[in-house]
Design a protein that fits this description.
Structural class: alpha+beta
Number of domains: 1
CATH superfamily: Gcn5-related N-acetyltransferase (GNAT)
Number of strands: 7
CATH class: Alpha Beta
Strand order of the largest sheet: 1-2-3-4-5-7-6
CATH architecture: 3-Layer(aba) Sandwich
Bound molecules: coenzyme A
Order of helices and strands: EHHHEEEHEHEEH
Shape: globular
Helix content: 25-40%
Largest sheet: 7 strands, mixed
Length: 222
């Protein structure tokens, strides 16, 4: 597959390529089947990195069935062809009594995965950034992430975002302290979501049109 099929790269008037724009959108019930397809397409080793254990297909299905869109936030990045290529799951939980990193009642944990064909283009970092800004705006000041200490890519993203990393027995727990919400963070998230929603609708309509044309009599593939 041509990498520009994932995100078309913009060229400026000098013919130079700039970085593709990545839109992160909040996903909902109607995306559940896309989320499942995204996870099922992850290789065994990536499922291990994402979930901390190797999850067989049946367990992945259970995990996706159990996603509660009213309690947690699930963010996604769509490819040019309306395929879900990145998923970030922000799960909220009550703070444990042992937790000394915060005195808020709620903490958040973030998990992320990006399809192989879309890696190295900033999708993982954008999803992480969106998760962090959402926490700020939801009055959560501590964002946790759990990953294997061999996961250098994720550790790089987390460190770049300013996360403190604690390593223990091959596991790395990272947490990021977040600033309180302000007008800029609230506006930034709202604008990001609106732009991403427009991008999502355009891609969904284009995909539906392509499907419709393919089903026109006489155009069916033999
Ligand atoms: C981790 C993952 C989400 C990253 O997604 P991605 O879209 O490729 O990430 P990005 O493109 O935003 O960023 C990758 C960064 O890591 C860096 N990187 C890549 N390989 C690296 C390595 N071996 N060591 C250190 N840094 C590395 C890149 O240079 C880039 O940094 P930069 O932006 O400063 O140049 C993706 O690899 C994935 O889905 N892995 C499987 C699941 C997983 O590990 N999830 C995390 C645990 S919840």
């Amino acid at each position: 597959m041509n990498p520009t099929d994932i995100f078309p790269v913009n060229s400026n008037h000098l013919g130079n390529h700039s970085k593709p724009t990545i839109y992160v959108k909040e996903l909902s019930e109607k995306d559940r089947h896309r989320i499942l397809r995204h996870f099922l397409a992850l290789e065994e080793s990536d499922r291990l990195l994402r979930f901390g254990t190797y999850l067989p297909d049946a367990m992945v299905e259970k995990y996706v069935e159990g996603l509660d869109f009213s309690r947690d936030k699930v963010f996604g990045v769509m490819s040019h062809h309306f395929r879900l290529v990145g998923v970030g799951h922000l799960a909220f939980a009550p703070r444990s009594e042992k937790d000394e990193a915060t005195n808020k009642d709620t903490v958040a944990e973030f998990g992320v995965s990006v399809s192989k064909t879309a890696r190295g283009k900033g999708v993982g970092a954008k999803l992480f950034e969106r998760g962090a800004i959402h926490c700020r705006n939801a009055d959560v000041d501590t964002l946790y992430m759990h990953c294997l200490s061999s996961n250098q890519t994720m550790i790089h993203i987390a460190k770049k975002a300013g996360m403190e990393i604690h390593r223990e027995y091959g596991e790395a727990d990272a947490y990021l302290k977040l600033l309180p919400a302000d007008a800029v963070s609230v506006l930034r998230e709202a604008v990001q979501e609106q732009v991403a929603a427009i991008d999502y609708t355009i891609k969904a309509n284009a995909r539906a049109a392509v499907k419709w044309i393919r089903h026109l009599p006489g155009l069916k593939e033999k």
